[in-house]
Design goal:
Blueprint lengths: L9 H8 L4 H8 L3 H8 L8 H14 L9
Helix pairs in contact: 1-4
């Protein structure tokens, strides 16, 4: 269920976005390039929960097993 699924923290999302193309993320999530860029670059440190959920879903879908773990 919704509450049983582990949510990513903003720090985890930012770290996972660093090696991804903004255009690809925007196309997959429906979020604007500016929103993604601002989150990734630290200019937005208080995104909405819907934004974090969209990025988390994208990252989980686009990753192979283990790619979101600490490196």
């Amino acid at each position: 269920t919704y509450f049983q699924e582990k949510k990513m923290t903003l720090t985890e999302v930012v770290k996972a976005l660093q090696d991804r193309r903004i255009d690809s993320i925007a196309a997959e999530t429906g979020l604007s390039r500016n929103t993604i860029s601002n989150i990734r670059n630290g200019a937005n440190n208080n995104p909405t929960i819907d934004t974090i959920n969209a990025l988390t879903a994208y990252l989980k879908k686009s990753c192979s097993v283990g790619c979101l773990s600490d490196k």
